Amino acid sequence: MSKILVTGGLGYIGSHTVVELVQAGYEPLVIDNLSESDIEVKDRIEEIVGKQILFEQVEMCNIDELEALFKKYDIRAVIHFAAFLLVNESVKNPLKYYHNNLLSTTNLLSVMLDHQVHAVVFSSSCTVYGNPDELPVTENAFIKPAVSPYGNTKKIGEDILKDTALATDLKVISLRYFNPIGAHESALIGEFQDGEPHHLVPYITETAFGIRKELKVFGDDYNTPDGSCVRDYIHVVDVAKAHISAVKRLLEKDTESFEVFNLGMGVGVSVLEMIHAFKEATGIEIAYTIAPRREGDVEAVYADTTKANTILGWKTEKSLKDAMGDAWRWENALRGEN
Ligand code: WQD
Q1: Range of the domain at 64
Q2: pTM (predicted TM-score)
Q3: Is residue 98 annotated as a catalytic residue, yes or no?
Q4: Which helix or strand (DSSP H or E) is residue 187 part of?
Q5: In a domain, 225, yes or no
Q6: From 150, 177, 222, 233, active-site residue
Q7: Segment 71-86, tens digit of pLDDT
């Protein structure tokens, strides 16, 4: 059976997408260089889906390794997650991000085209919108200059894919995630946490667990209803399912060369509302203090999801409460093991 190649398939969104691919009847081929993930995630995915997962450790910046992979397997589409994704780290070490995130993408496309593989789903981000001029954000919103090298690699990545698609038979769907949160209901896979968390929800669950004394709310003087920043938080399983819809569309429909879809709940939620949502879901009160604004934070951003709902035929099924409950169970599973 021909395979769906999933690059970075042991990462946060990747691992949840591999689960959904198997459950939708596809056969994933997972590659990962294990720089930001753990091989144990493969065992966890297999435990969830009840079958072996094809996995190869591949360094995508080495084109020979990709060439060998495409020679070995019959691949009919690719979902490209593999990338470094930490905004702060990218500011401190931009070359690491430009080298890895862009070279892995150009290597992938070169080898795909050499092997007549023409369908790719790209993991992009709402970060390309910067501080949007109007809300909710549609896919036609002006793409702002990136506020971080990480965000710039997503924007340049889309440009590389778009220009290549216009010049070849490549067909691309770029999925712009808003803020993925939560974990699989089994609590076997979730957001990889290695030391300091990188996003709001792991900070909330670590505070709830007692690992942190309190949550710092980065600013309450924004021009938003309660003064704290607003985001569009979407359950990671809903994000994963959108990738299945995108692969299906590329394999079964005659699509444009380059299509973009926003993946969000379509609702703006503030940091303070997230603290309340966590209490609603778990009964746990989160201690917090108001801290200074965080450099580079966008005041408010949330998605217009009409295009994904109508053209991709995808819509979110899980609630914020589901996501907070799943995130809390994941935190407990993580701590239970350590
Ligand atoms: C969310 C809100 C913080 C921690 C990032 C990436 C973006 C995308 C989604 C990949 C902000 C506030 C946070 C804390 C806080 N990822 N916060 N206290 O920055 O919206 O987006 O994840 O594509 O590219 O940049 O997510 O979770 O860091 O912050 O008050 O301890 O929570 O100020 O308003 P962000 P985040």
Answers
A1: 3-183+234-264
A2: 0.97
A3: no
A4: none
A5: no
A6: 150
A7: 999 999 999 999 999 9
